[in-house]
Request: fold
Amino acid sequence: MTILVIAEHNNQSLNPGTLNTVAAATKLGGDIHVLVAGHNAGAAAQAATKIAVVAKVLHSDDAAYAHNLAENIATLIASIGKNYSHVAAPASFFGKNVLPRAAALLDVAQVTDVVAIESADTFVRPIYAGNALATVQITSTPILLTVRPTAFDPAAEGGSASVEALASTGDTGLSSFIGQELTKSERPDLQTAKIVISGGRGLGSGENYEKYIIPVADKLGAATGASRAAVDAGYVPNDYQVGQTGKIVAPNLYIAVGISGAIQHLAGMKDSKVIVAINKDSEAPIFQIADYGLVADLFEALPELEKALG
Amino acid sequence: MKIIVPVKRVIDAYVTIRVKADQSGVETANVKMSMNPFCEIAVEEAIRMKEAGKATEIIVVSAGPATVQETMRTAMAMGADRGIHILCDEEIQPLTMAKLLKAIVEKEQPGLVLTGKQAIDSENNQTGQMLAALLNWPQGTFASKIVLESDHAVVTREIDGGLETLKLKMPCVVTTDLRLNEPRYAALPNIMKAKKKQLDTVTPADLGVTVQSAIKTLKVTEPPKRQAGIKVASVEELVAKLKTEAKVI
Reply:
């Protein structure tokens, strides 16, 4: 059995989710190969060789892979997929875009969002916004799966795998990249941060988000997130959204401010180690899952919190 | 240009999900069903394209037992022109759904397939991508903006860390994210009119597709419940607890 992990990267370095996916792959049993498809992505391929459990890195370098176009990368994955028992990718916007396309090209099913591995063909995955867990067995091969990164600790470094060049399958010509608008932030990445502070509708405005959430985030070195209500109201950009359809996070500390706790939001953060809720409504559902609840007006509590953090 | 909009009937987003005691699935008896919210966004977007003169006909497609026709009528009340119901009582998994849709696409020859990025029940997030692969069409997943030009679509997509814009050759498959639009409610006169719109029924066999279930659900369980913790009286107490008890700051 050999397992292929599809690396998510920006040509320079690996996205942390790749390490979690490799860690999940070790639970399947078998050699692990990592595919780095990119353009001038030697640095990312080198980074993959340093993951301790990786036996081989396949590096395919072509301008067609510069921007993660699903049409091109899925074709490449499908061209080698039959050589593997499993093909795994992070269940991120990248993996969810590319892997189902590769699955259909291979004429096999795919298991999405794996949170636990019971055996080489049996997996646990959340359904209904995490309100139920399904244990599923897949009979088609190769077995394709996307792995929820927060459910697995990252694989350790310290390896020295070899790099093998893999021929490109070229550009399908179906799509092309026009541009990207990435939210610039000096803060830790929402999905890998140890502390996350999120704001909800209770903040009332984007200005208040800046004025009340940001100073506390600065003191804690925290990543900043938001509920869907806050995003829909335009307080912060879309990619701040924590929840079923946004980011799934599981930091050591999650602070929910002015967030009532809709199921949709809880699905994105309920696996956090410690949850703090600050809300003036003592009946808010968020308090039912919070380790520490503070019933207070956030406009008073947050400046106090900032001060108390010294 | 025709637009095909596949929609799924799911347990309503506001219903509390209950896992069955025998772990065979979740309770669906006497539970309110609705159109998957992401599919609703796809229907709305297709209607707006037609209103803008970019499309001529909207065909809504759904697979499942006879009850899915109710959901299809909702789409027609919103503004879809006609429906194709794939009658099937078995569970339909994404790869099979993609094959069924491929057969319909080949017959109807649409310029665009618009569908939800995922269904809120099974949460697979696969069907659109799989359909695009089988048709050898480009895909624009998680779309927050779609601009149709003469022979291509410019799709803005939600990605980790921001937005990305792609140019896709037409025909193509686009899957919708939350912020693409806000779906309209169907007005009562339109609900009445929708009952008279054409709705054809086909079977997987008619489409030459065998229903396959490569994924078997062994059991469905409740996730571990998180216990409610304590209420603290002040910010000071909160900070003290986080430092000495939880040791997370």
Observations:
- Chain B has one domain: 2-224.
- Residues 118 and 125 of chain B are 4 Å apart (CA to CA).
